[in-house]
């Protein structure tokens, strides 16, 4: 059973309109200043499998749901990132899907564009998902999930850690915050993040409406 709360009856319940690009996105993950414990995303495998949180606030939609969605059709994924000072960046990957639980939700992600820098492809593409109670990373000297306090597609270990500790701003600890290394490095935790997907063929499905021309 999912630990998500809110109106999660169908895809439309967690769609958000973004005005920086055309089309609707389905939100998979959100972090923000919602007064949760800073280790709220330091969850076990079962929670990441089914999902947790409040869809109106911070949440993870669940790896089973991500697998089901991204294996029905081709998807792209967008990461919207905001720093504590209000600065915003984004990263868009034109190809995104994950495998099923038997294959440890292995991530497939490529074809980057955006202004946040690519903190996913080199370190996380083709990596299995890991949590504090299931170590599937390639780090031989320990558990990346235990070290960096999140559930993620760790290798040995990461260039991004969006499910890490919510430290909100600069921190002395190394790489255990909500980090996106190619933008803010390993010692500054982001204020807000969203991971969101849309079908790659969404442009073909848009209904075009003619608008009256000024006379």
TrEMBL record:
The cross-references to SMART domains, in alphabetical order and at most eight, read: FBG
| Domain of life of the organism encoding this protein | Eukaryota
User: What Gene3D superfamilies does its record include?
Assistant: Gamma Fibrinogen, chain A, domain 1
Give the matching SUPFAM superfamilies: Fibrinogen C-terminal domain-like (SSF56496)
Q: Which InterPro entries match?
A: Fibrinogen-like_C, Fibrinogen_a/b/g_C_1, Fibrinogen_a/b/g_C_dom, Fibrinogen_C-term_domain, Fibrinogen_CS
Residues forming the Fibrinogen C-terminal domain are 1-201
Keyword line: Disulfide bond
Cellular component, GO annotation: extracellular space
In its UniProt entry, what is this protein called? Techylectin-5A
Provide the species name.
Answer: Araneus ventricosus
Gene of origin? TL5A_26
């Amino acid at each position: 059973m999912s630990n998500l709360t809110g109106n999660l009856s169908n895809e439309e319940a967690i769609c958000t309109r973004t005005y920086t690009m055309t089309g609707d996105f389905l939100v998979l993950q959100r972090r923000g200043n919602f007064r949760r414990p800073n280790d709220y995303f330091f969850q076990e495998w079962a929670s990441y499998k089914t999902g947790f949180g409040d869809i109106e606030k911070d949440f993870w939609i669940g790896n089973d749901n991500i697998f089901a969605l991204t294996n029905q059709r081709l998807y792209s994924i967008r990461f919207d990132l905001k720093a504590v000072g209000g600065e915003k960046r984004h990263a868009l990957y034109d190809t995104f899907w994950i495998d099923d639980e038997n294959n440890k939700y292995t991530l497939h992600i490529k074809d980057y564009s955006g202004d946040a820098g690519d903190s996913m492809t080199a370190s996380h593409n083709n990596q299995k998902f890991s949590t504090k109670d299931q170590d599937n990373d390639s780090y031989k000297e320990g558990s990346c999930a235990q070290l960096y306090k999140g559930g993620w597609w760790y290798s040995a270990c990461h260039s991004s850690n969006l499910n890490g500790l919510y430290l909100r701003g600069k921190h002395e600890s190394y790489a255990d915050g909500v980090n996106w290394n190619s933008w803010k490095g390993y010692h500054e935790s982001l204020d807000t993040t969203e991971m969101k997907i849309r079908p790659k063929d969404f442009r073909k499905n848009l209904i075009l409406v003619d608008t009256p021309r000024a006379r």
